[in-house]
Amino acid sequence: MADRHAIIVGGGVTGLSTAYHLKRLGYGDVTIFEKDAIGAGSSSRAAGISTGLLWTKTGILARKTALRRFREMSRELDGYVFHNEHGCLGLFSPELWPGRAALLPLYDEWDVPYQVLSAAEIRRRWPMLNPPDDHLGVLDPLGGYSEPPEYLAALTAKLKQQGVRIVTGATVEGIETRNSRAVGVRTEGRVVQGDAVVVANYAWVLPLLKTVDIAIPAKTFLHRRYVSAPLAGPFVAPPVNADPYSGYVRPADGNRILVGAETPDLDDIKLTDFRSRYEQLEDDPALRDDVVARFADFVPALRGLEWETRKVGLLSFSMDGEPILGPFGGMDGLFVGVCFHSGGFSYNPASGYYLAEFVANGRTSIDLTAFSPDRFAADETAAYIASTVPQRNAARRRH
């Protein structure tokens, strides 16, 4: 294993985490190719919210790994802190509650801690939150959030210490194959050979896989994240996945508030060129006021705030809402880790670990059949890619 070379396409959190764990497993050479700067895509535009209260056994087990690793990395990486002082809260209206209540036995079965809180209890614990009286919360005491720029910088510094080769400003134009095996990538007019290729370029996965006639059922949607100017004092609250408001809110560095939201009526975005950039995404700056107004009753501190930053990112969903992670049965040496809904940041310590296990050992420490890229039929995949889907009809999966 020490003389092997793994190539990772995409320098976001999934690619970085995969490289980190490959080196921890004693793998040989690792090269990351990123067309922009490290983390310049969705990773730097993420909310960084993390919870283990997911929807399936596989997701729950993966997030157990991720949350454990976030806490460990908070001790291992210089300059990074995983904020779980208040856990992570999910908020549910009466209409949405039955769907979450049905999952509580699954959390009990797999020993996932949680607390069901009334609106009054939420207000008592965190007076800066004001949910409607008929709403309920589910608190994940192990959840929390990261500041993406801090995490990206700390993890990148660690990779350099590990000897990972990071090549930025290099667009991967295709995957090289020989006898149904991935043997490298084409980038900047040259071929770089490798024993394994890991595709972790997220929203641009479809055009890259098309170069080897592989398709997966992925849809991509716009995502918006805003950070306020500093408040007079700290915003004391857990990060909240607030489905009744079609978004989320959390504290941010420097007594700021971070809020993000989906746009339910907008259709998916068709990305056909992996050379395109985030700067080319079109967005309406006036939407921020609509998002803030949507949350203002729940978080009264938002009223009248000035806003410092606005970032537009992308979310990718698979046809069934679950991640697509693992090897392709018909192409040896090719692996993929994408479609983490809005939870790519939350998954990354686990998704990178499992991808590293696949590459280094050919198997993973938990059963990831439910995430396999081979689980979809070819005709269903083609129809899904060709269809147009508004965001409200995508599987609702938040962090």
N- and C-termini, Cα separation: 34 Å
Mean pLDDT: 94
Encode the helix/strand succession as letters. Answer: EHEEHEHHEHEEHEEEEEHEEEEHEEEHH
SS content category: alpha/beta
Strand content: 25-35%
Largest sheet: 8 strands, mixed
Strand order, main sheet: write it out: 5-6-4-14-15-16-13-17
Number of strands: 19
Q: What level of helicity do the residues show?
A: 25-40%
The Rg value, from CA coordinates, equals 20 Å
What does this molecule look like?
This protein is of the alpha/beta class and 399 residues long. The chain contains ten helices and 19 strands. The chain has helices spanning 13-24, 57-76, 97-101, 104-109, 119-125, 148-162, 205-210, 287-295, 344-361, 378-386, and strands spanning 5-9, 29-34, 49-50, 88-92, 115-118, 136-140, 144-145, 165-168, 172-177, 182-187, 190-193, 196-199, 218-228, 240-242, 247-252, 256-261, 307-318, 324-328, 331-338. α1 packs parallel to α6 and α1 (13-24) runs parallel beside α9. The protein is globular and about 60 Å long. The chain starts with a strand and ends in a 13-residue tail after the last helix.
Show the helix and strand layout.
Elements: E1 5-9, H1 13-24, E2 29-34, E3 49-50, H2 57-76, E4 88-92, H3 97-101, H4 104-109, E5 115-118, H5 119-125, E6 136-140, E7 144-145, H6 148-162, E8 165-168, E9 172-177, E10 182-187, E11 190-193, E12 196-199, H7 205-210, E13 218-228, E14 240-242, E15 247-252, E16 256-261, H8 287-295, E17 307-318, E18 324-328, E19 331-338, H9 344-361, H10 378-386
Helix pairs in contact: 1-6, 1-9, 2-9
